[in-house]
Amino acid sequence: MWDTILDLTISRSFDASGFMRHQKHFKKISDEYIKHRTILITGGTSGIGKSLAQSLNKLGGTVFVTGRNPEKFQTSGLKEQGIHFISLDLCDLDSIEQIVSAMPSLDYVVCNAGAMPSDLTLVKDKYDAIFGSQVIGHLILIKQIIKQNKANEECAFHFNSSGGLLLKKLDLSDLTWKKNPYNKLSSYANAKRAQSILSEYLSMRFSQFTFSTSHPGWVDTPALCEAMPKFYEKFKNRLRTADQGADTLLWLVSKGQLIHSGKFWFDRKKKNLYPFFWTRESEKTRNAFIELIKDYLDY
Ligand SMILES: NC(=O)c1ccc[n+]([C@@H]2O[C@H](COP(=O)([O-])OP(=O)(O)OC[C@H]3O[C@@H](n4cnc5c(N)ncnc54)[C@H](OP(=O)(O)O)[C@@H]3O)[C@@H](O)[C@H]2O)c1
Question: Which of 14, 40, 42, 68 maximizes ligand 1 atoms within 8 Å of its Cβ, making it the mutation to test the pocket?
Fold first, then answer.
């Protein structure tokens, strides 16, 4: 009862105290489906992705992280731990096919990379950088991994989304911000909502693989500090550590194909993607998004 009330406050659920309460029900993570498996984590050079990379490495996985800036990897300490780096800018959509061709076969892919740039830049004149990288870049990455037979038989793909999606209705009407002034928070929530629908769709389209979307809560990372300085200042003593933020992703990976594909998770629990009815996209918007996805999957 008390737990339910605290969870409803959001703030006492997404913060570190929420994690501490929820983790009382957690079981120790097993290495059964991690040991000797190969894992790709986009944006694994800092924050949540870095923490996840280290945990998976410790549990016997072979880990590849991607990022735009190789220097971040060089100074991260990951190389010394035996973690590998692949240079990848998810805004550079044309480069992804070639980069995937040099990748090993993968057991798990964690689509974690994400940033919230203050200035508007466009990808292919069709999307802002947030939607272009987090949704379309990851979609092309997944497509190429599958198309080039780099996905092992029981491969699972996990999106690191955000609780912000829960307040957002998918909106495809102005992805280049021609009609409205650029708003990074709105674009970010929209991209995260799109990721959840993408994951649902892919779970049906590629039913031999497993897909998930999860959110990490509020986590003390460079991205949060830079993108939302006022929020960071207010909550900095209550934020989750990167390890706490990475916990659900680690747990999802550790489950292999045992989870229900296409679902949304928080603190190892399945959650409703639409707790507020007004955030459900219209059929027309959903169909338009599915058409957009299909265009990229056509091969
Ligand atoms: N921190 C939170 O409270 C919070 C809450 C909800 C969701 N999340 C999500 O968690 C994920 C990780 O964020 P974080 O907080 O851990 O941030 P972070 O520490 O800044 O890590 C972001 C990672 O993504 C990479 N990256 C950013 N843009 C990229 C692009 N266009 N192409 C390729 N790689 C890119 C970064 O490396 P380079 O800069 O070198 O490319 C870095 O490795 C994001 O998707 C974020 O939306 C975070």
Answer: 68
